[in-house]
Amino acid sequence: MINNTSPLDRMFQALADGHRRQMIDRLAAGPLTVSDLALPMGISLPAVMQHLSVLEACGLVQSHKQGRVRTCALTADALAQAEAWISARRMMVEARLTRLEQFLATDKEDGA
Q1: Crossing angle, helix 7-15 and helix 80-111, to 10 degrees?
Q2: How far apart are CA 5 and CA 87, in angstroms?
Q3: Fewer CB within 10 Å: C terminus or N terminus of the chain?
Q4: What is the 8-class DSSP label of residue 40?
């Protein structure tokens, strides 16, 4: 289980694992039972359950049990927090590159 207190840290740590990203990719197409989710992964059902518990703990996945069948689905807007964090950093880098581009254009005009 992931022990960091920051929700963003937990989300990025959950997404750092390839099996969990594969689960997210498959769940993006729609809800799946744990058995269906585990089938193509080549790992044990207990390992799949452990990965799912990490995804649930960080809020990316929700599951519900009906009888003996547990169905998993992506949480609506689950990746929004990570997307916002990445987007903010991308905008800062793009702004810096725009300033550099403007500086180089001005410097080229002054030198010409």
Answers
A1: 90
A2: 22
A3: C
A4: G
CATH architecture assigned to 1-75: Orthogonal Bundle (1.10)
- C-beta separation of 25 from 19 below 8 A: no
Q: How far apart are CA 90 and CA 84, in angstroms?
A: 10
Q: Compute the distance between CA of residue 88 and CA of residue 90 in angstroms, rounded to an integer.
A: 5
pTM of the model: 0.76
61 DSSP β-pair partners: 74
